[in-house]
Amino acid sequence: MTSTLPSAALVEELQGRIREVDPLVNAVCTPNPAARTEAARLDAERDDGRVRGPLHGVPVLVKDNIDTADLPTTAGSLALADQPPPPQDAAVVRRLRAAGCVILGKTNLSEWANFRGSASSSGWSAYGGLTRNPYALNRSPGGSSSGSGAAVAAGLAEYAIGTETNGSIVCPAALNGVVGLKPTVGLVPQQGIVPISHSQDTAGPMTRTVKQAAALLSVLADNQTDYTEYCLGTDLSNVRIGVPRGPLWGYSKGLDEVTERALELLSRCGATLVDHLSLPTPGGDEDQLQVLSHELKVDLAAYLATRAPGGPRTLDDLIAFNKKHADQELQWFGQELFERAAATEGLDSPMYVAARLTALRAGRDGIDNLLRDNQLDALVCPSYSPAWAIDLVNGDHVLGSSSSHAALAGYPLISVPSGTVSGLPVGLTISGTARSEVTLIRLAHAFETARIAADGPFPTPEFTQWV
Q1: Span 251-287, pLDDT tens digits
Q2: Which fold has domain 7-284+355-455?
């Protein structure tokens, strides 16, 4: 816990900050009216000598596709907005509460985690409206964990939870100048999270610092590891880091310059950089889309079956709802991804089985072969392009990303703020093989420490337009 205030006072302070700042950013879609009461109860526990752990009394914001039994869970869709709250908390929320965290509220997201239509704009949902980037209010916050990233950047909370299928934690982390950690798929339980794909989905921390992300992962993960123990110094003299070039670079000159500076800092920490490597283009975009489409139909139906009677139960139900409410739901982009998924034929389909194997090999073979052949501990590359202008008519203008290989493989990565390009935050992505979170956290913390020592604290947002 970074504040010396009692939890109830900290919650009051953050609630005031949300009232003051969030009308500009629109990151929090559902505040928790019971947050102060919960915080006061936790303060009383502390006063009685009962401290549940390092995050006792810490306020946390949760993405609005994660079930909370006391607050709505909508995935940004009006189809779920009038439904009662889910019957129980998601597994990750139960773990947060057990650790003494206060659920401060729910954050807006790209509707259905950016998997309804291909021309979507990150940060927009029919339920929550449009989330904006605190560093440039006319620029994208990224997605789909848009509100979680923007909220942490705006100082509405220091801890938030996002989810990722392909880039949905690391993208908004990079664009908003915060830390985003996407764990290995399966390390964090997915029960009670609105799904896209059981092969690629995971929840993960979004925080101000690497150590905060490590503390949150220690609560969320299945393995009872204290990841903060691996936030050590800056000595990386026994570490070999690979630097894939190729398509992960070259889409922003300013970003490349910031990333070269990041490589210099890692080298100063003693790391051996193995540069100019080639990570094969994952390809298989059609295979990945086949996998996501098939799994969405099955996984989402299973999730919807847990919600209150009378609500949507299938993709066909959601498609029909959106058509009926097209003036609100379909005003900016369509639902062709939903329609494609609804037409799939189940997880026994030969098309699905073949696509899943191809996608898995594309991700795992590319990463693991590169690590093994070069005796590497991790890989580094630019995270995402600087934030693009919001364009609700045409959708996102993403110039490049670092997440696809890890998404296909189900492998972890972490994005750490590396600098700014024309005042817009950018990040450095550190990635590795399955269950390599200990290594990634160690490297990320060392880089973060070295960057702050060299350049000072990361600049705070000014909530202005960017021209």
Answers
A1: 899 999 999 999 999 999 999 999 999 987 766 688 9
A2: Amidase signature (AS) enzymes (3.90.1300)
Q: Is 151 exposed, middle or buried (0-12, 13-18, 19+ CB in 10 A)?
A: buried
Question: Can you tell me the distance from the alpha carbon of 22 to that of 26, in angstroms, rounded to the nearest whole number?
Answer: 5
**Token pair 């492998």 in the structure block, residue:** 411
The distance from CA 388 to its chain's CA centroid, rounded to whole angstroms, is 18
The angle, 0 to 180 degrees and rounded to 10, between the axes of the packed helices 91-98 and 210-220 is 110
- Percentage of the chain surpassing pLDDT 70? 99
* Phi, psi of 146, rounded to the nearest 5 degrees: -65, -50
Select from 125, 119, 118 the least CA-distant residue to 144: 125
Domain ranges of the chain: 7-284+355-455
Q: What is d(CA 144, CA 160) in angstroms, rounded to the nearest whole number? A: 13
Distance CA 372, CA 391 (A): 42
Tell me the C-alpha distance between 158 and 178, whole Å: 10
Residues 342-375: tens digit of each pLDDT = 999 999 999 999 999 988 887 888 999 999 999 9
Q: How far is Cα 374 from Cα 256, in angstroms, rounded to an integer?
A: 23
Cβ contact 161:205 at 8 Å: yes
Active-site positions read 63, 144, 168
Query: What pTM was computed for the model?
Result: 0.98
